[in-house]
């Protein structure tokens, strides 16, 4: 038996991916940008194995067997096997590309609660399979076919997913903008408002938004300029500009969700209280020190610089005490999950 085990962290988008132009190949309607967390916090861990005695492909996620007969898993298998066959040639004695695969994966955080679990999961799966089958070169386009945002978790630091323009998706992949060491003071703090499974999955939400949100049409025009400006801000370590674009993009994404018919609301009253908290903290500080962003769920991801962490954590604990406050705000870790991209 040949096995490989890898871990991959989640990534937190500051320019959101929302909407596909090709559902099967997972090609987006706009480019997006995120930071990948460090290896120690929210991450998927996956072991993949092949053996000539395996009779079928199988997968277990968090100890429960899952079907591998989904289009996304099948797309990933097909692409990995195709590249392995191309690399090794049909003469390869082991014929590893025709052996059945067993996958065992676990997340150390709530699955499907809007914490980018599928991004970490598919990035980890594709990376492990690529190692197992000796596939090298660009693999973020394979991860993309599992879950769009997964392509960004293939790389560390700040990462861009270029939407590309080609119909076959060959120019739609992730690219690192800066490694994590470029901006070591940058931290992400995750406030877990709810670890329940989200009511509208991102696939379904995106489909409806593309079908009927007029605001989404407008967004597509706005994103290229935002991508240019936030990339510049990251390279120049200009936190103020970075934070302003991040918050505006999160707000626009959730406005599109509300503009979708029937409307989708991922944020809750607690999420909105966190938004107000961040703006009033920034106002009182006389400068922008914290940026919030929310994915397809109510949980807040705060971007801030290390020097401000202590103060923000104590204020969060003061205004959102974790116990018996009726707000159901849980902070991840002790007392909050802190990680550097
Ligand atoms: O990759 P998916 O299908 O889970 O989509 C994720 C979309 C958002 O998390 C809401 C935004 C993003 O860019 O990560």
TrEMBL record:
<dbReference type="GO" id="GO:0006695">
    <property type="term" value="P:cholesterol biosynthetic process"/>
</dbReference>
<keyword id="KW-0752">Steroid biosynthesis</keyword>
<keyword id="KW-0444">Lipid biosynthesis</keyword>
<dbReference type="Pfam" id="PF22700">
    <property type="entry name" value="MVD-like_N"/>
</dbReference>
<dbReference type="GO" id="GO:0019287">
    <property type="term" value="P:isopentenyl diphosphate biosynthetic process, mevalonate pathway"/>
</dbReference>
<dbReference type="Pfam" id="PF18376">
    <property type="entry name" value="MDD_C"/>
</dbReference>
<dbReference type="InterPro" id="IPR020568">
    <property type="entry name" value="Ribosomal_Su5_D2-typ_SF"/>
</dbReference>
<dbReference type="InterPro" id="IPR005935">
    <property type="entry name" value="Mev_decarb"/>
</dbReference>
<keyword id="KW-0443">Lipid metabolism</keyword>
<dbReference type="InterPro" id="IPR036554">
    <property type="entry name" value="GHMP_kinase_C_sf"/>
</dbReference>
<comment type="function">
    <text>Catalyzes the ATP dependent decarboxylation of (R)-5-diphosphomevalonate to form isopentenyl diphosphate (IPP). Functions in the mevalonate (MVA) pathway leading to isopentenyl diphosphate (IPP), a key precursor for the biosynthesis of isoprenoids and sterol synthesis.</text>
</comment>
<comment type="pathway">
    <text>Steroid biosynthesis; cholesterol biosynthesis.</text>
</comment>
<keyword id="KW-0456">Lyase</keyword>
<keyword id="KW-0547">Nucleotide-binding</keyword>
<dbReference type="InterPro" id="IPR029765">
    <property type="entry name" value="Mev_diP_decarb"/>
</dbReference>
<keyword id="KW-0152">Cholesterol biosynthesis</keyword>
<dbReference type="GO" id="GO:0005829">
    <property type="term" value="C:cytosol"/>
</dbReference>
<keyword id="KW-1207">Sterol metabolism</keyword>
<dbReference type="GO" id="GO:0004163">
    <property type="term" value="F:diphosphomevalonate decarboxylase activity"/>
</dbReference>
<protein>
    <recommendedName>
        <fullName>Diphosphomevalonate decarboxylase</fullName>
        <ecNumber>4.1.1.33</ecNumber>
    </recommendedName>
</protein>
<keyword id="KW-0756">Sterol biosynthesis</keyword>
<feature type="domain" description="Mvd1 C-terminal">
    <location>
        <begin position="188"/>
        <end position="341"/>
    </location>
</feature>
<dbReference type="GO" id="GO:0005524">
    <property type="term" value="F:ATP binding"/>
</dbReference>
<keyword id="KW-0153">Cholesterol metabolism</keyword>
<keyword id="KW-0067">ATP-binding</keyword>
<dbReference type="InterPro" id="IPR053859">
    <property type="entry name" value="MVD-like_N"/>
</dbReference>
<dbReference type="InterPro" id="IPR014721">
    <property type="entry name" value="Ribsml_uS5_D2-typ_fold_subgr"/>
</dbReference>
<feature type="domain" description="Diphosphomevalonate decarboxylase-like N-terminal">
    <location>
        <begin position="8"/>
        <end position="174"/>
    </location>
</feature>
<keyword id="KW-0753">Steroid metabolism</keyword>
<comment type="similarity">
    <text>Belongs to the diphosphomevalonate decarboxylase family.</text>
</comment>
<dbReference type="InterPro" id="IPR041431">
    <property type="entry name" value="Mvd1_C"/>
</dbReference>
């Amino acid at each position: 038996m040949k096995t490989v085990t890898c871990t991959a962290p989640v990534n937190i988008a500051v320019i959101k991916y929302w909407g596909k132009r090709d559902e099967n190949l997972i090609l987006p309607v706009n480019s997006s940008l995120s930071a990948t967390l460090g290896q120690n916090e929210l991450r998927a861990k996956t072991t993949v194995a092949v053996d000539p005695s395996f009779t079928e492909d199988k997968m277990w996620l968090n100890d429960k067997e899952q079907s591998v007969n989904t289009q996304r898993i099948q797309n990933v298998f097909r692409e990995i096997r195709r590249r392995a066959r191309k690399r090794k040639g049909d003469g390869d004695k082991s014929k590893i590309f025709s052996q059945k695969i067993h996958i065992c994966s676990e997340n150390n955080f709530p699955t499907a609660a809007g914490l980018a679990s599928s991004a970490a999961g598919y990035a980890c799966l594709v990376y492990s399979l690529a190692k197992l089958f000796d596939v090298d070169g660009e693999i973020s386009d394979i991860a993309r076919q599992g879950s769009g945002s997964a392509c960004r978790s293939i790389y560390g630091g700040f990462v861009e997913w270029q939407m590309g323009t080609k119909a076959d998706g060959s120019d739609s992949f992730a690219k690192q903008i800066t490694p994590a060491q470029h901006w070591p003071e940058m931290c992400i703090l995750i406030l877990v408002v709810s670890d329940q499974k989200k009511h509208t999955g991102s696939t379904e939400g995106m489909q409806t938004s593309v079908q009927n949100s007029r605001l989404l049409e407008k967004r597509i025009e706005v994103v290229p300029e935002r991508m240019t400006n936030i990339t510049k801000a990251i390279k120049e370590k200009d936190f103020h500009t970075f934070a302003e674009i991040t918050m505006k993009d999160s707000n626009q994404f959730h406005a599109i969700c509300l503009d979708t018919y029937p409307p989708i609301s991922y944020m809750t009253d607690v999420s909105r209280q966190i938004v107000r908290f961040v703006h009033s903290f920034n106002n009182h500080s006389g400068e922008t020190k914290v940026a919030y962003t929310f994915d397809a769920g109510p949980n807040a991801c705060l971007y801030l610089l290390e020097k401000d962490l202590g103060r923000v954590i104590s204020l969060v604990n003061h205004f959102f005490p974790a116990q018996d406050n009726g707000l159901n705000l849980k902070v991840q870790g002790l007392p909050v999950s802190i990680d550097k991209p």
